[in-house]
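Quiz preparation item.
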């Protein structure tokens, strides 16, 4: 019996010795470089840096809990549907290494065992930009009326004097905590454009910040005698002064967005690019969400440019559903809007997808229906997370012949079981704010560079946004 006890003790001590051999520099740092440092570095979205032992060590126990629960790295796609090149999920042996390292005091180990540090671009960029285009600084108030800052639009010049083949677009806000989204696209220059002017529409909202129904809105338009005349709120855009022509907020060439968890649209792996003609301007759509502290955001756009003309053209787009029929009933835990449908008018390859909903978003699935009737499920996100609106890059592009359809379905949870639900007692309509809703399945395709992007797809109700 004593021999068995001694043998057991020796076995335990050997296991402990083996576990203690797991060190930061030899075992943990390579995992962080491959799976975590994209976000966990200075200037990026994560609140702490994992570049060095000194900055990582205080988070060892929290790191173990986050990876074992699969909370980190964030990834929401069903592993049984599709294969994605940007999947950061940890393998079982990597989970074991981080767990053992945390349990054994998070030892540093020998710095000589460390792999060479990754050379990340300066100033928080993910891709080193060839060109940086700056937005307009905006002071997000601490407590605006109804805690609402309305969507704003902006036009800035690109300064492009020749046609440009853009191979990646990265949108970088300076104040991530208050940036709900920034979307940009390249649009034709208009002679009457007002550059560098943030514009918006003051929408009528109730005490909860929800936009008043169209039939209930009133707006007093100015008249010559100064008395004004009441008009329905739906006329506001036609009579108000907040207008920059059709260019402001328009979907032009290369529509792409920053949302939490997604900032870089990179077309280089697909040997594709956006063709931006000389003289085009940059159109911005910007949405801030106050957090109780006044912060000034200074957004920038980083672009990489092809040295030679690329093989193919990239088109990023999004679907939608009929906003007139979108209404989530109170306490409905599984509301399904009419699916989004995109019809392919040319042969293409599907390369990327990204669901977008707000706080009541529950799940989203992407399905291709081919001209011969064959169907293929290509993405299933069973647990949508508004805080991590990820993009999913296919390992292998899917060939989509002309006449195919991309059908996207989703559900919303407007019940009390949804911990993010602001108010399950309300009917929820489509709207700009996080406590309203959207159904905007983003996707990207590559086509022959001779294709006109405006005639590549037919998408009814592409009323999304971010």
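Solution:
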């Amino acid at each position: 019996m004593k021999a068995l006890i001694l043998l057991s003790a020796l076995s335990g001590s050997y296991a402990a010795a083996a576990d203690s051999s797991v060190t930061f520099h030899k075992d943990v740092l390579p995992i962080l470089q491959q799976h975590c440092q994209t976000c966990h570095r200075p200037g990026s979205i994560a609140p702490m840096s994992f570049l060095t032992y000194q900055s990582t060590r205080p988070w060892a126990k929290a790191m173990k809990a986050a990876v074992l629960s699969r909370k980190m790295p964030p990834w929401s796609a069903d592993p049984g549907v599709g294969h994605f090149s940007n999947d950061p999920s940890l393998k079982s042996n990597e989970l074991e290494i981080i767990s053992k390292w945390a349990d054994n005091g998070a030892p540093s180990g020998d710095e000589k065992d460390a792999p060479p540090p990754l050379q990340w671009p300066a100033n928080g960029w993910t891709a080193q930009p060839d060109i940086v285009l700056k937005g307009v600084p905006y002071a997000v108030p601490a407590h605006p009326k109804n805690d609402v800052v309305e969507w704003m639009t902006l036009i800035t010049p690109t300064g492009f004097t020749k046609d440009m083949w853009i191979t990646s677009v990265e949108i970088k806000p300076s104040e991530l905590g208050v940036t709900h989204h920034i979307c940009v696209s390249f649009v034709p220059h208009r002679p009457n454009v007002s550059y560098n002017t943030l514009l918006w529409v003051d929408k009528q909202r109730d005490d909860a910040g929800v936009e008043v129904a169209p039939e209930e809105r009133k707006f007093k338009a100015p008249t010559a005698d100064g008395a004004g005349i009441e008009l329905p709120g739906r006329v506001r855009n036609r009579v108000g002064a907040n207008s920059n022509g059709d260019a402001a907020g328009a979907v032009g060439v290369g529509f792409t967005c920053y949302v939490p968890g997604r900032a870089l649209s990179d077309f280089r792996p697909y040997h594709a690019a956006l063709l931006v003609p000389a003289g085009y301007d940059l159109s911005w759509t910007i949405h801030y969400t106050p957090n109780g502290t006044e912060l000034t955001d200074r957004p920038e756009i980083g672009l990489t440019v092809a040295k030679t003309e690329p093989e193919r053209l990239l088109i990023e787009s999004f679907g939608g559903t009929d906003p007139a029929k979108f209404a989530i009933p109170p306490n409905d835990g599984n509301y399904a809007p009419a699916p989004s449908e995109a019809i392919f008018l040319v042969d293409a390859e599907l390369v990327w997808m990204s669901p977008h909903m707000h706080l009541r978003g529950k799940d989203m699935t992407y399905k291709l229906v081919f001209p011969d009737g064959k169907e293929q499920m290509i993405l299933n996100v069973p647990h949508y997370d508004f805080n991590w609106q990820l993009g999913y890059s296919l390992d292998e592009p899917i060939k989509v012949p002309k006449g195919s359809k991309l059908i996207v379905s989703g559900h919303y949870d407007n019940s009390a079981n949804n911990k993010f639900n602001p108010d399950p007692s309300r009917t929820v309509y489509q709207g700009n704010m996080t406590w309203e809703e959207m159904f905007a399945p983003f996707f990207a395709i590559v086509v022959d560079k001779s294709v006109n992007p405006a005639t590549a797809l037919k998408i009814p109700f592409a009323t999304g946004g971010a």
